[in-house]
């Protein structure tokens, strides 16, 4: 059978389209953010000012937009600012959300992958069904579910579990519930795509060799699904770090994450340079460890070859 190959102009076009897309919608906006983060706005209302001296051509970068994020706190402690607290809180909540999605989503993905092929499309449609509803409406729905007079409290009082409503809204629990619910499909889908390609005869071979079901699952299924776990974890963790809507609607005043801090700096304080500096540091926190991970995993894969 003859092999089909694209002509050179067509190959360049197919390869170039993703690069152009990434440049226009990722690299170019990031460069604009990086530019604004070094601007000295002064008393102006717009941040697009030159970062060089128009007469001498010398760059005049305002590093204070970054240094102020890491300044000492009022008690003299280093890195004791609201920005660092927001960064750490955002990473913590994103990590908890990713772990909860993994614990809940892995059984779902495994069940769908082991189900009959005729049933899988319906099960996948049920996973993707929430995407047909507005993201904002789904978050507002959780406010009605977890409110003092919401469905959960009304059901518990009707069953006699409690006499008074339990305060669940505007807490850490309500925020984690909302974030886990919203991002759970992003964990299930890549895990399913990985598990459905798995050769389940390997599990039968492990059983024949005397492995228990749990041991076979831990030593065979989990290692073979590692790429799906990493992909799902990153798809949940990365957007969770910069989440703004869910903490604002379901979180309390102490659950200020970095997305809300960036919003306040940009639209309340009108301090675009500091807001963009916060965004640049947040992107670095995410992209740098991810690049290091993929660099070493790529090297290990090459060494195995």
Tell me what the structure shows.
The structure is a single chain. It is built from 13 helices and no strands. By secondary structure, it is an all-alpha fold. The protein has a domain at about 80-255: Orthogonal Bundle (MetI-like fold), CATH 1.10.3720.10. α3 packs antiparallel against α10 (about 225-240), α7 (about 170-195) packs antiparallel against α10 and α8 (about 200-210) runs antiparallel to α9 (about 215-225).
Strand content: under 5%
Q: For the residues shown, what is the average pLDDT?
A: 85
Biggest beta-sheet profile: none
Count every beta strand, where a strand is a DSSP E run of 2 or more residues. Answer: 0
CATH superfamily assignment of the domain at 80-254?
Answer: MetI-like
CATH class of the domain at 80-254: Mainly Alpha
Distance between the termini: 28 Å
| Proportion in helices | 55-70%
Please write the string of helix (H) and strand (E) elements.
HHHHHHHHHHHHH
Report the CATH topology name of the domain at 80-254: MetI-like fold
Multimerization state? single chain
What CATH architecture of the domain at 80-254 would you give? Orthogonal Bundle
SSE-based structural type:
mainly alpha
Number of H/I helices? 13
- Low-confidence blocks of residues: none
Shape: globular
How large, in whole angstroms, is the Cα Rg?
25 Å
């Amino acid at each position: 059978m003859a092999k089909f190959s694209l002509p050179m102009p067509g190959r360049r076009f197919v390869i170039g389209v993703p690069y152009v897309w990434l440049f226009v919608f990722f690299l170019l906006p990031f460069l604009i953010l990086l530019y604004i983060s070094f601007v000295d706005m002064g008393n102006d209302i717009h941040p697009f000012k030159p970062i060089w001296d128009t007469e001498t051509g010398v760059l005049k970068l305002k590093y204070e937009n970054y240094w102020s994020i890491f300044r000492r706190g009022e008690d003299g402690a280093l890195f004791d600012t609201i920005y660092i607290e927001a960064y750490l809180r955002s990473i913590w909540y994103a990590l908890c959300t990713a772990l909860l999605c993994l614990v809940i989503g892995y059984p779902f993905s495994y069940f769908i992958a082991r189900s009959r092929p005729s049933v899988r499309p319906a099960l996948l449609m049920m996973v993707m069904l929430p995407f047909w509803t507005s993201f904002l409406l789904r978050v507002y729905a959780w406010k009605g579910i977890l409110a003092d007079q919401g469905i959960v409290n009304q059901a518990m009082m009707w069953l006699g579990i409690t006499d008074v409503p339990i305060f669940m809204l505007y807490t850490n629990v309500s925020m984690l519930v909302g974030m886990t619910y919203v991002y759970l499909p992003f964990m299930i889908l890549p895990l399913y795509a990985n598990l459905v390609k798995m050769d389940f005869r390997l599990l039968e071979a492990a059983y024949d060799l005397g492995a228990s079901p749990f041991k076979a699952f831990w030593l065979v299924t989990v290692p073979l699904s590692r790429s799906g776990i990493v992909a799902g974890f990153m798809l949940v963790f990365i957007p969770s770090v910069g989440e703004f809507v869910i903490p604002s609607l379901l979180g309390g005043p102490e659950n200020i994450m970095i997305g809300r801090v960036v919003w306040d700096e940009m639209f309340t304080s009108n301090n675009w340079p500091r807001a963009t500096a916060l965004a640049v540091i947040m992107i670095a926190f995410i992209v740098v460890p991810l690049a290091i991970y993929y660099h070493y995993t790529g090297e290990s894969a090459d060494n195995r070859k």
